[in-house]
Write a structure and sequence with these properties.
The protein is of the alpha/beta class and 383 residues long. Helices cover 28% and strands 23% of the residues. The strands form 2 sheets. Strands 1, 10, 11, 12, 13, 14, 15, 16 and 17 form a 9-stranded mixed sheet that branches. Strands 2-9-8-7-6-5-4-3 form an 8-stranded parallel sheet. Helix 3 packs parallel to helix 4 and helix 4 crosses helix 5. The longest helix has 24 residues. It is globular and about 70 Å long. The two termini are 38 Å apart.
């Protein structure tokens, strides 16, 4: 006879409880330093207000309704960006009321879901292909909604986007003429520029992107189409687009958390990292084995953090180096043999966005104690 799940004592289904100390948290766990997180949110809010631009943070970083609502209620955000329809659906269910899917949606079933979602929130989407316009229009009509549509231009990343200038204008005319759609403006985001480490090279790339967006905006206005929104920019370049006099909205994401790779993105002016944002996201790990002198093994391997942008660093421990990872193990060089079993370390992930998608919960910590648990609402929402 098999037991049903309700008869099983399955132990922890959350990594911590409110009030726990750091040493009580089950590892590996995804930790938010609330003080640093709140300061980062406030820095970006202050920047956007001073620059006179709308702030629409990218939720692909955190995939959390709690974080998105905090950004809207306390951080000056007018709404959020998503990359996938399912991500947008999850966050709207969590209370978010204004979402831009800052990506292409071509599949008719996804487009139908997007139009249905617009019954419950303000929904915008990007296009870069004329074939999608009719499908968006039909779906919006079927659900009795109007979708705001932004024409995405390729401004240097060579990813999605119609060519700037005349091709973008022709696509915008199609959007403006389609029933149930409203032409809202231009999406001009240079993703790869965010992680150009050298500030002069980063500025050169963004100056080119701004030039393409400006040319497109002029031609749109000449054609009688006003781009109400000119949006883009990320954490690495928000200050450049924000100072352009052209962009009126920015889409930074990683600024709330930062990661090991963003620590290499030097500020445009002076020393330090871009925006002076602090590291607020960590993978808390425990030492599970100390098999030999100079080597320690932690419980955060490949399944605990993304290493596409490099290995994690060990926070505030320059004497320790995270040197390699396998599925469930992380190897740490401990030349001074300071570590022992069950010691806790805070790892700064190489890339925060995909790392967050590996976890069910954020463990929010202040002054060494757990203050809140926030679900990663849109974890795994990739469709």
């Amino acid at each position: 006879m098999t037991s049903s799940p309700k008869d099983l004592d399955i132990g922890y289904d959350v990594p911590a409880s409110v009030g726990d100390t750091i040493n009580d948290i089950q590892t590996p766990a995804l930790i938010i330093d609330l003080d640093a997180f709140e300061r980062n949110v406030e820095r970006m809010r202050t920047y956007a207000e001073a620059a006179g631009v709308r702030l629409r943070p990218h939720a692909k970083t955190h995939k959390s309704a709690d974080v998105a609502l905090y950004q809207m209620q306390n951080g000056g955000a007018v709404g959020i960006c998503c990359q996938k329809v399912s991500e947008a659906e999850a966050l709207v269910r969590g209370g978010v009321t204004d979402v831009l899917v800052a990506n292409e949606v071509a599949d008719p079933k996804k487009i139908d879901r997007l139009a249905r979602l617009a019954k419950n929130a303000h929904v915008s989407v990007c296009v870069d292909d004329p074939a999608v316009v009719a499908t968006l229009s039909e779906a919006a009509g079927r659900h009795g909604v109007t979708l705001d549509v932004l024409v995405e231009i390729d401004c240097g990343a060579r990813r999605c986007g119609v060519l700037p200038g005349a091709p973008a204008v022709e696509l915008a005319k199609m959007v403006a003429a389609a029933p149930n759609l409203a032409f809202a403006g231009i999406q001009a985001y240079h993703g790869s520029a965010q992680h150009i480490y050298d500030p002069a090279e980063r500025r050169t790339a963004i100056d080119k992107a701004i030039g393409m967006a400006r040319e497109t905006a002029v031609l749109l206005r000449d054609a009688g189409l006003e781009p109400k929104i000119i949006t883009g920019a990320g954490t690495g370049t928000h200050n450049l687009e924000g100072a352009s006099g052209l962009y009126n909205e920015v889409q930074p994401g990683s600024y709330i958390f930062m990661d090991a790779d963003y620590a290499r993105v030097r500020a445009t002016e002076g020393n330090g990292t871009v925006g002076s944002f602090e590291r607020a996201l960590f993978v808390l790990t425990s030492i599970m084995s100390k098999p030999a002198s100079g080597r320690a093994i932690c419980d955060a391997g490949l399944k605990a953090h993304s290493i596409d942008s490099g290995l994690p660093t060990v926070f505030e421990r320059p004497d320790l180096t995270f040197v390699s990872a396998s599925d469930e193990h992380g190897k740490i060089e401990d030349l001074q043999d300071t570590l022992k079993l069950n010691d806790r370390l805070a790892l700064v992930p190489g890339h925060c966005d995909p790392t967050c998608n590996l976890y069910d919960w954020y463990v929010c910590v202040r002054n060494g104690r757990v203050e809140a648990l926030w679900p990663v609402t849109a974890r795994g929402k990739l469709y």
